[in-house]
Amino acid sequence: MSKRKVVSFLLLLLLTVSVFIANIIIIENAKGIAAILYVFPDVTQLTYDKNSETAPKTVSELEKLFERITDKGIAFCSEGKETKVKEDTVTTVLVNENWFSDYKTEINGENISSNNIDNRDKVAIIGSSLALKLFFTTDAVGKKICIDGNQYTICGVICENESLINKFSADDKQRVYVPYTTSENYGDRTVDMIVYDNSVYTGAIVEQMDLPQYYSVNLNEKNQTLSSFEHILYLAIFIGFSIIALKLWYRFSRKFFEEIKENLKLNYFLKSLKNIPLKYVALVLVFAGIPAVLLIVFNICDFSIFIPSKYIPNDNIFDLSNYLNVLVDNAQTLNSQSLTGNQMPVNLFSRTFTASLWLTIIFLISIITVLLNLTELKLHKHKNTDKQ
Questions:
Q1: Dihedral of the alpha carbons of 87, 92, 96, 99, in degrees to the nearest 10
Q2: Which residues contact 198 (CB under 8 A, 6 or more apart)?
C-alpha cells in the first residue's frame, strides 16, 4: 500500500468532513439556531410586488378587516422614506404589535405593544448594528432618537446576527420600527408586507383574501426544505456506515461460522457449545446485533425529505425535468419581481439553498469516492497478504 494512496485517501476524507461541517453550519445559521434575528418560523409572508397592476392594501383596509375578525397572529408593515438620524440614513417602518412576535425575534428590552399602538406612543425598535453607530453601544434602551422632527424613545434593540451569509442577504438598509399609529394619516399608508401565523385560525382567513398583488412565501416550508438537506447528509452517512458495518458483519459472521463448523466436525453440538461458548456468543451477537443496531438507528433518526406538494409532478414523481423546470421558474419569478419591504428572509433562504445544494452534491460525490477508495485500499491489503 503506497503512502501516496493513503495520503490521498486522508485528504479526501478531510474534504468530505469539511464539506459536511460547512453545510450544517450554513443550514443551521439560516434555520435560526445560529441566527437570532431572522429564522424561518411557521408563518407565511406576503410581499407586495411593484410590478403588479393591482394596488396594495392600505392600513385602513386592514384595520377594517381586524374589526370584523381579529388581528391575532397577523402582522403588517409599511416602509417609509429614508431619513437622517444624526449622520446615518435610516428607513422608518410602521408595524403593528404582532410584527416581531410572529417572526419570533429576540429583542433586548420590550416589544411594541398593543397599548403603544392604541396610545400612539412614540417608541422605536432598532437593530444592534444601528445602535452601535448611533450610541456606540448595543445597550440603547431608553435612549432618544429624532426622526423627521419627532422624538422617539428606544424600547428595544434587535439582536442581529453578523454572519457572512446574513450580510450578503441583507439590503444594507438601517431600519427603525415604530408603531404604525404614530404616523400622520397612517390609514392611507400602503402595506408592503403582511405576515400571518400558519398555526392561528386567522391565517386561513388571510389565505382566502384575494391578494394577487402580493408574493406569498411560506417560511415554514423553507425551513423544512433546508432541514431536508441535513437529512440527506445524515442519510448518506448512515448508508456509508451501513455498508461498512454489513461488510464487517459478513466477514466476522463467516469467520465465527467456519470456526464453529470445524469444531462440530469433531464434537457433538452440546460438547462443542461447552468447548467454545464464546464463539457461539460472538456469532449470535454479530449475526443479530449489527443488523439490529442499524434498524434501531434508522428508526430513531429522522431521514424524511420534504418536497412542497406544488413541486411534485402529478403523473410521474420520477420526472426529473419537472423538478428542474420548477426550480428555474421559481428563480426567474423571484428575480423578475420588484418586491417591497425587507427581503432578508427570502434572500437568506435563496442563498442558503443554493450553497447547500452544491455542498450536498459535493458531499455525496465525496462520500461515494471515500467508500470506493476504502474498498480499493482493502483490496490492496488482501493482495499483499496473499503474496506473503
A1: -70
A2: 42, 43, 44, 218, 220
* Rg of the Cα atoms in the chain: 30
CB 157 within 8 A of CB 93: no
Q: How far apart are CA 40 and CA 346, in angstroms?
A: 10
Nearest to 38 by CA among 200, 167, 216, 191: 167
The model's pTM is 0.75
Residue 86 CA from chain centroid, whole number: 37
Q: Please name every residue paired with 196 in a beta bridge, in sequence order, or none if there are none.
A: 44, 74
How many whole angstroms separate alpha carbon 213 and alpha carbon 61?
A: 15
Q: Give the Cα separation of 189 and 106 in Å (integer).
A: 27
Q: How many angstroms separate the CA atoms of 187 and 170, rounded?
A: 29
- How far is it, in rounded angstroms, from Cα 313 to Cα 330? 15
Predicted confidence (pLDDT) per residue in 325-361, tens digit: 776 666 666 666 677 777 777 777 878 888 888 899 9
